[in-house]
Specification:
This protein has 10 helices and 5 strands; from the N terminus they run βααααααβααααβββ. By secondary structure, it is an alpha+beta fold.
């Protein structure tokens, strides 16, 4: 069942790294994988600097292989990691890799490698959006109370034209009962404010999925959550 929503994009910011994507433990593990002695003695504030220096001693593809193994070694085979390490020197894998469930992690990996190698890897772009979604009908308000990635991804799609990537790839899913890819399109979301008939939500996604949106855009959407 479709509900009528009104949407306003309050802010639109391009980002190149996700907050808190990497912990001190991650950096220590990467130093160990780079055969760096004494990682435990490095202060937390200097850990990434040491990671960057250790990686710069390696071929970029070899460094990428280490980071991929650390973050995705439980999901990828050795041959896949080796192939991906070379591909990510030229390709935007956080947008293009076939398994969308890895896109957010591939963004984090590319972001670290881009910074460590001063731009030898593609510049990763993501977007942070803040938008208010409102409904004047009880059913729509109820849908907002159970807000999830499926509704948010559909809302992003309705704010863009038919040529937008999200609409070209997923027009059937957007109109259909279940949009399983939505959880991999919407990397993060957080409700900033709830009002009686609306929510204001902060969304993080790849720029790929939201290029047509801009600050100040207002539009209508007749859409729905995933159906039971």
């Amino acid at each position: 069942m479709n509900h009528a929503f009104s949407i306003e994009v309050l802010s639109h910011s391009i980002i190149h790294a996700l907050p808190d994507a990497w912990s001190s433990d991650d950096y220590v593990s990467l130093l160990d994988l780079c055969d760096f002695d004494g990682a435990d003695a490095v202060s937390k504030d200097e850990l990434f600097e040491y990671v960057a220096m250790a990686m710069q001693e390696l071929d970029p593809a070899d460094a990428a292989e280490i980071v991929l193994k650390h973050r995705l070694g439980d999901r990828l085979k050795a041959g896949q990691i080796q192939s991906m390490a070379h591909d990510m020197l030229e390709e935007n894998l956080w947008e293009e890799y076939g398994d969308m469930s890895m896109h957010e992690e591939l963004f984090n990996i590319t972001s670290l490698l881009y910074t460590a190698f001063n731009g030898k890897f593609p510049h990763p772009d993501a977007i942070e959006l803040v938008m208010t979604i409102g409904s004047k009908t009880p059913d729509g308000v109820q849908a907002l109370r159970s807000l999830d990635e499926s509704l948010l991804a559909r809302v992003l799609a309705f704010g863009q034209d038919d040529h937008a990537i999200i609409n070209r790839l997923f027009d059937d899913k957007i109109a259909g009962p279940y949009f399983e890819e939505a959880k991999d399109i919407i990397w993060k979301f957080a409700i900033q404010e709830r009002a009686e008939n609306s929510v204001t939500v902060h969304i993080t996604t790849a720029l790929y999925w939201a290029k047509g949106l801009r600050k100040g855009l207002c539009y209508e959407a007749k859409t729905h959550n995933n159906m039971p």
